[in-house]
Amino acid sequence: MIKKILLLAFISICTTGFVAAKAKIPFGKIDKIEIVADLPDTEKYAVSEGSKEYLDLARMHQEYNIAWVIPAWITQEPKLVLAQKDSDEYFELNQEQLAQIVSENKLNQENLLQLGLYTKYGGKLIVLLIIGLILYGIFSKDKPKKVNPTTI
């Protein structure tokens, strides 16, 4: 009997850690930087003088995000910046610099600033679908039927 109690106590102590570790869903504002145009690897676009790392034209916007994959809404409109691939660092451009880069590389600034369909609307649809399912679950429950006492 004592062995069973000790085994049960040991198992309950070990499993409480698993029960307490709940997954938390991250949400909040994040900055998204996506490379939209590969600029030529010249000294003009080098990260620093004599460097072998080069900058490319990137689109940066801020969005309210749920679980890193569901963009609920855009909080800051996209703008073009210079950034390195696989890096969070970016360099802001003034209008003259941006116009010069766009004209030299024959790029269309309006097309570069357009966000994808999923980024614009996908997150909103998923959030609305989840809210709809929750409301459906709340209001579609079968109500208990009243029993007529005369039929018993």
Briefly, what is this?
With 152 residues, this protein is α+β, with helices and mostly antiparallel strands. It is 38% helix and 26% strand. Strands 1-2-3-4 form a four-stranded antiparallel beta sheet.
What would your notes on this structure say?
The structure is a single chain. By secondary structure, the protein is of the alpha+beta class. The protein is 38% helix and 26% strand. The protein is built from four helices and four strands. The protein has a four-stranded antiparallel β-sheet with strand order 1-2-3-4. Strand 2 and strand 3 form a beta hairpin. The longest helix has 23 residues. It is elongated and about 85 Å long.
Please write out the topology.
Layout: H1 2-20, E1 27-37, E2 56-66, E3 70-83, E4 90-92, H2 95-104, H3 109-113, H4 117-139
Antiparallel strand pairs: 1-2, 2-3, 3-4
Which ranges are low-confidence, i.e. pLDDT below 50, for 5 or more consecutive residues?
none
Q: Which percent range describes the beta-strand content? A: 25-35%
Overall geometry: elongated
**Mean of pLDDT:** 83
Question: If helices are DSSP runs of H or I spanning 4 or more residues, what is the number of helices?
Answer: 4
Task: Please provide the count of β strands.
Answer: 4
The biggest sheet amounts to: 4 strands, antiparallel
Strand order of the largest sheet: 1-2-3-4
Order of helices and strands: HEEEEHHH
Roughly what percent helix? Answer: 25-40%
Distance between the termini: 51 Å
User: What radius of gyration results from the CA coordinates?
Assistant: 28 Å
Class by SSE composition: alpha+beta
